[in-house]
Specification:
The chain has six helices and 13 strands. It has 249 residues and is α+β, with helices and mostly antiparallel strands. The chain has one domain (5-145, 152-159, 214-246): 4-Layer Sandwich (CNF1/YfiH-like putative cysteine hydrolases). The chain has a six-stranded mixed beta sheet with strand order 3-4-7-6-8-12. Strands 1-2-13-5 form a four-stranded antiparallel beta sheet, with no helix packed on it. Strand 10 and strand 11 form a beta hairpin. The longest helix has 14 residues, at 46-59. The radius of gyration is 17 Å and the shape is globular.
Length: 249
């Protein structure tokens, strides 16, 4: 089971549950998506993705259908309940205080960040690729949570690791424009290029916003074959999900 699912190592209250899928789950997607692709916009057969999503809900005994988002690398935050809408909200983060709600973030190298209040009263989830992270998607999520940052827990999920992620000047400049000390998240490789530590940059921004209890990190989606990786697999990479939910009382 440890290879099929990742369960966050954070001291969340009992009513808060979280899990991350891998490509090894109980899915039916064929190559190159084999086998547990959960992304509808990656080129996989829609019927396979929907079957995988159904298997996900059953395998984890989720209290409701996950609230999937139409992610666009922005900073919009949706406030959601357990009942699905006709269309997926266009947002890159979501929050909820309603029991039975399952928030879901899809990634394949970008950083998923999960949040919960220390008293279990609310949850959040954010999709933080470099564009969204630099633009403030984590800070936007925090502003939509009623709990003060000092009373929140955050968990950094699987993303591309610093050793695998070389970026150009535009990425480094985007972070340093608002925080010159963000240079600590970059290591020079060749002229105009750097290794970028997404998780470290996220941790820095969360700390600056007042979040003190930050867990997770240490993954590398490109190097770890359990995960989908856009940089490794190309445009037809699948997507794995990071989920957080409030138990339905």
């Amino acid at each position: 089971m440890t290879e099929t699912w990742i369960f966050p190592d954070w001291p969340a209250p009992p009513q808060v549950h979280a899990a991350v899928t891998t490509r090894l789950g109980p899915g039916v997607s064929s190559a190159p998506f084999d086998r547990f692709n959960l992304g509808l916009r990656s080129g996989d057969a829609p019927e396979a993705v929907m079957a995988n999503r159904g298997a996900l809900q059953q395998a984890l005994r989720l209290p409701a259908v996950p609230r999937w988002l139409q992610q666009v690398h922005g900073c919009a935050v949706a406030e959601l309940g357990p009942l699905p809408s006709a269309h997926e909200p266009q947002a890159d983060a979501a929050v909820s205080h309603i029991p039975g709600t399952v928030l879901a973030i899809l990634t394949a190298d970008c950083l998923p960040v999960l949040f919960c209040a220390e008293d279990g009263s609310e949850i959040g989830a954010a999709h933080a690729g470099w564009r969204g992270l630099a633009a403030g998607v984590l800070e936007a999520t925090l502003t939509q949570l009623e709990t003060p940052p000092a009373r929140l827990l955050a968990w950094l999920g699987p993303c591309i690791g610093a050793a695998s992620y070389e970026v150009g000047e535009e990425v480094r400049s985007a972070f340093m424009a608002s925080d010159a000390a963000a240079a600590d998240g970059f290591v020079a490789t060749r002229a105009g290029h750097w290794r970028c530590d997404l998780a470290a940059l996220a941790r820095r921004r969360l700390q600056a916003a007042g979040v003190r209890r930050i867990h997770g990190g240490g993954f590398d989606t490109l190097a770890d074959p359990r995960f989908y990786s856009y940089r490794r697999d190309g445009a037809r990479s699948g997507r794995f999900a990071s989920l957080v939910w409030l138990a339905d009382s």
